[in-house]
């Protein structure tokens, strides 16, 4: 099995990623680390502990950074900057901050997530993959305080960024937007980075109502829990935009876990140079990819950007993994 540290801002789709990582025989989940993102880190840690306990897993949870590297916790990230305000009606809970499972009794570890990541990697044989599915604050901070971990990380397979899709703004995906400076550090780190972009999850990581119903009937706690969260997402996306999300919803974060198990699930993968905008304007958080930029000014590639995924394989793998008792 592949050793991973799953970095989360749980979140309903993070919860499905956690369940997949716990259940898969091909994954050795060393630890879960939490980060500020969907909600503040106290909340994402609480939610993560909830999921771990509900699934009866023996996985340590480390609490990570409470603030983006360079910005405040102001919802606009930088007070006073122009930012995009959606005119669409919002149901307010698409990402499902509140997880409808019992409160946790287990506790997080004493050590903070960044110290854990550094220590764990420095004592490893270079066989640990980082799978961040929230803002990249913990990973970037770890790289900053101990640059030698660069040679210890096997690879980074993340959920984040976009090429033609945005969700926090027309050009920015949430995880990158929430801490673009951190994203810049990670993309320019020299570590092998594969990004499951919003393009890939919106096109290739959808789960339909029928698949969700199958999931609920798998006869496992993981299946029942994930079906509950996915049903909520399908409902929310449908209310949001029925023409695009009729009876299905993107379940972003498990795609990164499944891509570690089987990289062929990712399609339209471009080895390209990715820059991240954090100039404080309308492009804040954009992942600028040199995919169709083939002039002499183009840079050396620094990431594998997956723009699509095999949707049928995504659903099949997820159902198979969640069926494991
Ligand atoms: C990402 O944003 C988060 O809210 C989701 O959990 C996912 O990681 C999608 O843009
Ligand atoms: Ca997430």
From TrEMBL:
Keywords from the UniProt entry: Glycosidase, Hydrolase
Pfam families: IU_nuc_hydro
Domain of life: Bacteria
UniProt GO BP: purine nucleoside catabolic process
Residue span(s) of domain Inosine/uridine-preferring nucleoside hydrolase: 4-315
Positions in coiled-coil regions: none
Entries under SUPFAM superfamilies matching the protein: Nucleoside hydrolase
GO cellular component: cytosol
MF (Gene Ontology): purine nucleosidase activity; uridine nucleosidase activity
UniProt xrefs under InterPro entries: I/U_nuclsd_hydro_CS (IPR015910), Inosine/uridine_hydrolase_dom (IPR001910), IUNH (IPR023186), Ribo_hydro-like (IPR036452)
Keyword Hydrolase: yes
Protein name per UniProt: Nucleoside hydrolase
């Amino acid at each position: 099995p592949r050793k991973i540290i799953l970095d989360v801002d749980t979140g309903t789709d993070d919860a499905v990623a956690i369940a997949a990582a716990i259940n898969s025989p091909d994954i050795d989940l060393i630890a879960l680390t939490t980060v500020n993102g969907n909600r503040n880190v106290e909340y994402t840690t609480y939610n993560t502990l909830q999921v771990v306990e509900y699934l009866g897993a023996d996985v340590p949870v480390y609490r990570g950074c409470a603030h983006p590297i360079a910005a405040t916790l102001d919802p606009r990230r930088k007070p006073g900057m122009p930012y995009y305000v959606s005119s669409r009606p919002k149901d307010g809970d698409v990402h499902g901050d509140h997880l409808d499972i019992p409160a946790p009794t287990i506790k997080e570890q004493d050590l903070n997530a960044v110290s854990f990541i550094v220590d764990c990697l420095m004592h490893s044989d270079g066989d640990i993959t980082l799978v961040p599915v929230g803002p990249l604050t913990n990973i970037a901070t770890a790289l900053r305080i101990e640059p030698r971990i660069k040679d210890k990380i096997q690879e980074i397979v993340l959920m984040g960024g976009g090429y033609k899709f945005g969700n926090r703004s027309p050009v920015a995906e949430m995880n990158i937007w929430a801490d673009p400076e951190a994203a810049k550090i990670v993309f320019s780190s020299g570590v092998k980075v594969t990004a499951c972009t919003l393009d890939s999850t919106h096109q290739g990581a959808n789960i339909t109502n029928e698949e969700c119903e199958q999931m609920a009937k798998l006869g496992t706690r993981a299946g029942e829990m994930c079906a509950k969260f996915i049903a909520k997402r399908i409902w929310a996306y449908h209310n949001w935009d029925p023409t695009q999300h009729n009876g299905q919803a993107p379940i972003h974060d498990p795609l990164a876990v499944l891509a570690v198990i089987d990289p062929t699930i990712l399609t339209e993968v471009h080895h390209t140079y990715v820059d991240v905008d954090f100039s404080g304007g309308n492009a804040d958080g954009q992942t600028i990819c040199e995919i169709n930029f083939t002039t002499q000014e183009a840079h050396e590639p620094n990431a594998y950007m997956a723009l699509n995924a095999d949707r049928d394989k995504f659903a099949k793998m997820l159902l198979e993994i969640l069926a494991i008792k």
